[in-house]
Specification:
7 helices; binds zinc ion; OB fold (Dihydrolipoamide Acetyltransferase, E2P); 8 strands
Length: 259
């Protein structure tokens, strides 16, 4: 079956003498592995459209065994990513996470659009990479349906400017008064330690605002540097614990952005 799709190349691996295997996140079929014959030849008609981070229209012969690229037309290439090594490193992390959370035959346009928006802002240098990372992670947490209940303390309902404990795996917030009563029971029933993130009321408010912001305002974070930094650390810890993995691309991004 020959299909026309619109999608983003999130990975391109060399294979054979001049071919490539692409991973695309498509609007129509979710994640797709697509064989791109001759894609590495300079004369190839797929040259631009088969590059990582190209977004465009792809005509694919979809079979049970292999999807073969027939036509490709790149609309956006995010070339600006090549100008900034931090932005490029973060884009690699975003691509890897998108690959991980996308499923074959299960399209999710909103998650794809989140990734595209983040790549655009990074490529154009419109926001600092850490801001893009924070927005990507918090909004992805919401997209994946694992966003914690940040409406207030899950025990007493308190929702003010004080500090809270966020229980990562249960997705629950507890105020210090209620959390304090639990000090003797810091472990789950199965004996594993709880993963806790300390969040201020201002951070809780900012996270809620961030996931509900409309597209034009989604990259507006609080001006306070400490709040920004802690929001960035919190989303990473929360997301990675739920995905149950680490990312070398993220480690590399953190290494070079600390230089
Ligand atoms: Zn409480």
């Amino acid at each position: 079956m020959v299909v026309s799709v619109e999608g983003l190349v999130v990975n391109a691996i060399n294979c054979g003498e001049s071919d490539k295997m692409l991973t695309l996140i498509t609007r129509q079929y979710g994640k797709m592995s697509v064989y791109c014959r001759g894609g590495r030849r300079i004369s190839s008609k797929f040259m631009t459209a088969s590059l990582k981070f190209s977004y465009g229209d792809y005509v694919i012969n979809k079979t049970d065994k292999l999807n073969i690229l027939q036509e490709a037309n790149a609309k956006i290439s995010f070339f600006g990513l090549q100008k900034d090594i931090c932005a490029a490193a973060l884009a690699d992390y975003i691509a890897e996470v998108l690959t991980d959370v996308s499923v074959e035959e299960e399209p999710d346009e909103k998650t794809l659009d989140l990734g595209l928006n983040c790549l655009y802002v990074l490529s154009e240098g419109k926001r600092a990479p850490d801001v893009v990372k924070t927005v990507f992670e918090w909004r992805l947490i919401e997209r994946l349906g694992i966003y914690p209940d940040l409406s207030g303390c899950c025990r007493c309902g308190k929702a003010d400017k004080s500090w809270y404990y966020l229980d990562v795996m249960n997705g629950e917030l507890t105020c210090r008064d209620c959390g304090g009563k639990e000090n003797g029971k810091a472990k789950e029933d199965d004996g594993t330690a709880r993963i806790i993130i300390l969040m201020s009321g201002a951070e809780v408010y900012a996270a809620n605002r961030l996931i509900n912001a409309e597209k034009s305002k989604m990259f507006s974070l609080p001006a306070d540097r400490d709040i920004k930094k802690r929001l960035c650390e919190a989303s990473e810890k929360y997301l990675l614990n739920h995905l149950e993995r680490s990312y070398k691309t993220l480690e590399f991004y953190k290494e070079i952005s600390a230089l």
